Amino acid sequence: MTATRYLYAITEGFGPAPGASGLRGAPLAGIEEGGLVMVTSPHVDLRAEADEEDLWSHEAVVESLFDTGEGAILPMRFGTTLPGEAAVRAALRDRAPEWRAALDRVRGAIELGVRAQIDVDAAPEQSPSVRRTEAAGPGTAYMLDRLGQGRLAAEVARSIHAPLSELARESAHVIRNQPTTMMKAAYLVEEVVVPDFQREVERLEASLPDAAITCTGPWPPYSFSGSERA
């Protein structure tokens, strides 16, 4: 029976450390084709579960490759498989231009994550809609209050994201309102720029009392690899 190949990352000509293991303790192997290496592990009847153990196993392999510092890597999305070594080699041949371009895009950069918990109730007087609630009925007052909170959250998020994105090659962010208002963002930052980025986060944290900001990383470029489809 041909073993399914579970995929962790594409690298530039280097593979996992000898004897390293991955998901469910399976041995890691690098499959090389045309200078690209897909780091894989063989499995029979694999059903990867999005539980803590499997997720950690996947991330541990990707981060071990990232930590070698030998070259750019493209993390694969958790749960990605191909039906055997021949299929892996075919994918590396067929998608080589796309994956080489993606490696060029992330080379010399790392991913930094930023989370900002935004206190939309900290300064209600700043919102014009809140000032109008006294003259409105209960339902209208509630809707105006929510509208004002949403605008305040968007303004604070923009104050954070705009200067940070100027220091990044690429960036992405979302605002989520449940259970608290939170901006979650990812930035692809050149390694030489990381100290400047971290100083800017500290400046924003000190200057924006309505937001509690944290920065995490460095991480492999999970959000910018463009390698989800195998």
Could you explain the architecture of this structure?
This protein is of the alpha+beta class and 230 residues long. It has two domains: 4-106; 109-224, 2-Layer Sandwich (Alpha-Beta Plaits). It has six helices and nine strands. It has helices at 52-68, 85-94, 96-106, 128-131, 138-165, 194-207, and strands at residues 4-11, 29-33, 36-43, 73-75, 81-82, 109-118, 170-176, 182-190, 211-219. Strands 1, 2, 3, 4 and 5 form a five-stranded antiparallel beta sheet that branches. Strand 2 (29-33) and strand 3 form a beta hairpin. The chain is elongated. Mean pLDDT is 84; it is low at 123-148.
Strand percentage: 25-35%
The topology string of helices and strands comes to EEEHEEHHEHHEEHE
Cα separation of the termini: 21 Å
Secondary structure: number of strands: 9
* CATH topology-level fold name of the largest domain: Alpha-Beta Plaits
Class computed from helices, strands and strand pairing: alpha+beta
The total tally of domains equals: 2
Sheet of most strands: 5 strands, antiparallel
The CATH superfamily of the largest domain is identified as Ribosomal protein S10
Alpha carbon gyration radius? 22 Å
- Helix residue percentage: 25-40%
CATH top level label of the largest domain: Alpha Beta
Mean pLDDT score, rounded?
84
Please tell me what the overall shape is: elongated
